[in-house]
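Sequence in, structure out. Go.
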Amino acid sequence: MKRCLLALLVCLTTLSFAAAAADRPPNVIYLLADDLGYNELGCYGQKIIRTPNIDRIAKEGIRFTNHYSGNAVCAPSRCCLMTGRHPGHAYIRNNGDPKDLQHLAAKYGWEFLGQNPIPDSEVTIAEVLKQKGYATGAAGKWGLGHFGTTGDPNKQGFDLFYGFNCQRHAHNHYPTFLWRNDTKEILPGNDRTLHGETFSQDRFADVALEFIRENNDRPFFLYMPFAIPHLSIQVPEDSPILAEYRRTIPEEDYVHKGYLKHPTPRAGYAAMVTHMDRDIGKITDLVKELGLDENTIVMFSSDNGPTYDRLGGSDSAFFESAGVFSGLKGSLHEGGIRVPLVARWPGRIKPGSESDHISAFWDVLPTIAELTGTQAPEGIDGVSFAPTLLGETAKQKKPEYLYWEFAAYGGQQAVRKGNWKAVRQNMTRKNSDPLRIFLYDLEADPSESKDVAADYPELVADFATIMKNGRTKSELFKFPPLDRQ
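Output:
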């Protein structure tokens, strides 16, 4: 009898939570992998790495085939995501440490400088959701400014931040400490070697679950910028996931470059991705358990393309991580910026949907604003894809074009307009032709293997104008003069 009464109480409590949730704005969970390739999920064609929970989000929701990251590396990409601006207008346009803020390291106890901070004037997704009293939490890798700067996540709308504030700190998944807001949480048994007692990704999942439980009676925004599968390749040595992959994935000798060396790098890399997928399953299961499923939007994507072959033991060629696309992380070719996007919202997003709508990270902020009934800031570049999510494709506005610029890796610009893609490379390298524009027809040539610029001079001229006018002056770097086009 006691067990029956307890079960009834749990059921009534869950129904009560569900009824209350239906009367408030939807919860938003945005999950972001780090350096995960377009083709590294089962729902996008991966044959070796298992991702059943992310695949289930796609099966029960929608899968996008033309979604793009904010940029080709971490910090500038995340800036576009958080602020709704494309790389020509975003404040952060490259990775880099704030050399002029070193004097703050001792004051605030930084061991890693963090990246260039976004300014107070930038409005983040978390700040937008504060209009309706959302609880806001982030667990993972931030990379947009350390505590004590304007980029402090607690100053950018987040009630809770837990994890790596600095990207360099995140290059080891067994750190000696993590940040909980501006307080260091020491992790005993970790010494930044290959293994330790506390796997940082497990802590991110624990904190995320705690955050959901603590805020299930109000609308919440959970941002989970995972630090995997970014190198180093590390996963708990006693993980059954790792053991399984060691039995099934062949390894081969290689010359190790950078980061820590893993004894079975292919198995280790695959295990990292599946480990992340397992934790995503824990999060979605808890949402369902609490009766919040039908009032919670879940999105998953990656901050840029997969990393270079054999760096730190990674093997993007073996896993076919970028699929048919050329280029990897650091490149504005498709392999460096075309990323997966899956989303689920029971009762609102039609299960098994697929969309070829062209979108990018800067579209996420206005999309979330529209779905939650909040107001996106004026002057941003994003176009909401909420109509596509909700199956109202006739109402979907299309972006005029998508624009990227990236100062590193030789200096690059890229524009996508419809099925056409224009790319400029080596803009800052000597003995190069920084004015040359390569043109590709992505419908006929998704791998960007055939430059057709000579056949379409008018299109090239149009793209040149966009590249010239698509950017604003940045204090962080300078391209060669663009008015010579």
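Check: DSSP finds 13 helices and 16 strands in the chain. The chain has a mean pLDDT of 92.
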